[in-house]
Specification:
By secondary structure, the chain is an alpha+beta fold. The protein has 10 helices and 24 strands. It is elongated.
């Protein structure tokens, strides 16, 4: 290795180099940050540069090779090996990358630190690591506040990387106002509206339910919403009238996640979106911005899955959901929060 290669020293969780490294590495490649007259590199930056024979590093007076630095860095910094794989990949794609919150800042092609703002914040995750919703939503919130995009880099067991973009989604549509119905009966796990004219009206003007022999079969969430809006009257099989609260309590006994699903369903309908079951797509709902008539139903724009606020994202599950949504030309949306305060999180594949 030539003598002019900058020499650095491992100190804690960074590598410090002398002032001679600043012109080549900092000003020429935007590596590290200046500390007084010296240059401080993060561990991933140092490993990347050492692997390219652009720096030398010592620790406690002993020279390190790449293996030695990598093993030390891995013991110092949890998840170092994943971040290194992502850092290396993004650099080799031609991006300038700097350590930041939550893991990296990535600058657009043609831009660099000091010239252009960062385009992406990067959040690095191992495919094996379940991620709490709260942990994922925080960097999304931070990125949104400073008008940045959040890139989630998922590193699989073979160190291949799949990139996703995650962002808060504003949901709105041009749905139809509901029309009044009639008396309906709660049966086993669904509701039947008996009056044929009322059934036709609700289906044609709001795309509610499924007509079966002229009568409308309604799902539990549809029924709760229509009952809550005063558009149907509900009774049980014994002919006893059911109010909103009693119906919702019964529905919760039939379907364990009914309260969560209903909160999302109601919010989507209140945003003038048309909502139908998403069972065949493996999600709670498929959602349309607008449906002109039941005879001219377009492709739905969204798949929406309701999750609890303590939900754990398992990355293989997310991968399947996003890939399926993409294959049927829909956006994958995860909905969370309490009734009256529902938030929407879109996750989609990204090609850097």
């Amino acid at each position: 290795m030539p003598e002019e290669v900058p020499r650095g020293r491992l100190e804690g969780d960074r590598v410090l180099l002398g002032s001679t490294a600043v012109p080549e590495l900092y000003e020429g490649g935007y590596f590290g940050r200046k500390v007084d007259s010296r240059l401080a590199l993060s561990l991933v930056e140092a490993a990347y540069l050492m692997d390219r024979s652009r720096i030398m590093v010592s620790s406690n007076g002993s020279k390190l090779d790449f293996k030695g630095l990598f093993e030390l860095a891995s013991s110092i910094e949890r998840g170092f090996e994943f971040r290194y794989v992502v850092y290396k990949d993004l650099r080799e794609r031609g991006y300038y990358v700097q350590p930041g919150v939550p893991d990296f800042r990535v600058y657009p092609r043609g831009g660099h630190p000091g010239k252009t703002p960062a385009e992406f914040y990067v959040y690095v995750i191992s495919e094996r690591t379940p991620v709490p919703l709260a942990e994922m939503s925080e960097p999304i919130r931070v990125a949104g506040q400073v008008r940045k995009r959040l890139m989630i880099a998922v590193v699989d067991e073979e160190s291949d990387i799949t990139y996703y973009e995650a962002r808060e989604k504003e949901m709105s549509g041009k749905g139809w106002p509901g029309s009044s119905g009639g008396k309906a009966t709660l049966l086993e796990d669904r509701v039947v509206l008996w009056d044929e004219e009322a059934s036709k009206s609700l289906h044609n003007q709001g795309f509610y339910g499924k007509p079966v022999g002229g009568r409308l079969q309604l799902s539990l969430v549809e029924s709760a919403y229509l009952l809550d809006k005063g558009l149907i009257q509900m009774e049980d099989r014994e002919g006893r009238s059911l109010g909103v609260e009693e119906f919702r309590e019964r529905a919760g006994r039939i379907e364990a996640d009914f309260p969560m699903k209903y909160g999302v369903y109601r919010d989507l309908r209140e945003r003038d979106l048309v909502v139908k079951t998403g069972f065949k797509f493996g999600s709670h709902f498929r959602v349309y911005k607008q449906v002109e008539s039941p005879e001219k139903v377009p492709h739905s724009e969204y798949l929406v899955h309701a999750v609890a606020e303590d939900y754990m994202f398992h990355l293989p599950v997310v991968s399947r959901a996003v890939r399926l949504a993409h294959s049927v030309r829909k956006q994958m949306i995860f909905a969370y929060g309490r009734e009256g305060n529902v938030r929407y999180l879109e996750i989609r594949r990204l090609k850097p």
